[in-house]
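Colleagues,

For the teaching module next term, I've prepared a clean inverse folding example: a structure given as tokens, and then the sequence designed for it. I'd like students to try predicting residues themselves before seeing the answer, so please don't circulate the second half yet.
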């Protein structure tokens, strides 16, 4: 059951949000993304549903990604049209093929990058990475980093202050550089505004302007913030998207949103 909580700019306190729930649709979702004006999920059948904000996606898709203000989706390979569709200022993006995957948006505006067979393709062509065998990536305001299945990181644009020896399971460049190391430890390198990351064995990390959240190998979330501890929602989670103090994630294929 898909549940929408009151959008964050309507909430003056967490309790005000927690008491406002509206059941919308029942289905299995595989991805979720939120911006300042949209909350959307991708069904396992490829359709996009939005429970807050205008729906811009009416084809079938394989991935969603979002900055603070723009949401984009990769069209399924068997559909017509350019591979990348965005909620605003979509552009042509004719250099992106239908084999592109792992779409990621920068924290602000329309910048994006995706993986192709021979490396990373970006809306800013100067950020392109010609490294085959990359498995994931993260996009920041000043560049992109991607890594292979051994955790070796390759970056372009303005590189973050990562030690050469670091190997990663996951990382983020959104509002500060933080990684999940190959040993499951969280480590942040240039985000002095944030508290020390929690201890544990982690495999994923997500960031917003005001929050970091990481997922343990058992599926639980641990979130931390600038000046206070964050109450983290219980349960196990497969995907997450953050906008400032607001989060939407997937539990057993169902989206849930909450005030962090």
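(Answer key — instructors only)
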């Amino acid at each position: 059951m898909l549940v929408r909580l009151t959008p964050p700019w309507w909430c003056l306190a967490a309790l005000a949000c927690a008491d406002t729930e509206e059941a919308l649709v029942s289905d299995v979702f595989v991805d979720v993304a939120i911006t300042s004006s949209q909350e959307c999920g991708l069904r396992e059948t490829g359709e996009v549903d939005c429970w807050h904000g205008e729906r811009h996606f009416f084809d079938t898709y394989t991935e969603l990604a979002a900055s603070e203000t723009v949401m984009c989706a990769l069209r399924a390979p068997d559909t017509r049209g350019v591979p990348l569709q965005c909620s605003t200022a979509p552009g042509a993006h004719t250099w992106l093929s239908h084999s592109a995957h792992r779409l990621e948006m920068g924290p602000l505006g329309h910048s994006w990058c995706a993986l192709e067979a021979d490396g990373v393709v970006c809306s800013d062509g100067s950020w392109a990475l010609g490294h085959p065998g990359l498995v994931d990536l993260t996009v920041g305001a000043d560049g992109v980093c991607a890594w292979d299945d051994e955790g070796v990181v390759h970056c372009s644009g303005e590189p973050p202050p990562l030690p050469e020896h670091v190997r990663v399971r996951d990382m983020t460049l959104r509002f500060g550089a933080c990684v999940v190391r190959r040993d499951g430890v969280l480590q942040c390198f240039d985000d002095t505004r944030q508290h020390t990351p929690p201890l544990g064995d982690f495999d994923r990390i997500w960031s917003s302007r005001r929050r970091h959240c990481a997922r343990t190998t058992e599926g639980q979330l641990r979130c931390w913030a600038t000046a206070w501890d964050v109450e983290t929602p219980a349960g196990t989670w497969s995907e997450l998207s953050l906008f400032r103090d607001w989060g939407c994630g997937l539990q057993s294929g169902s989206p849930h949103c909450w005030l962090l």
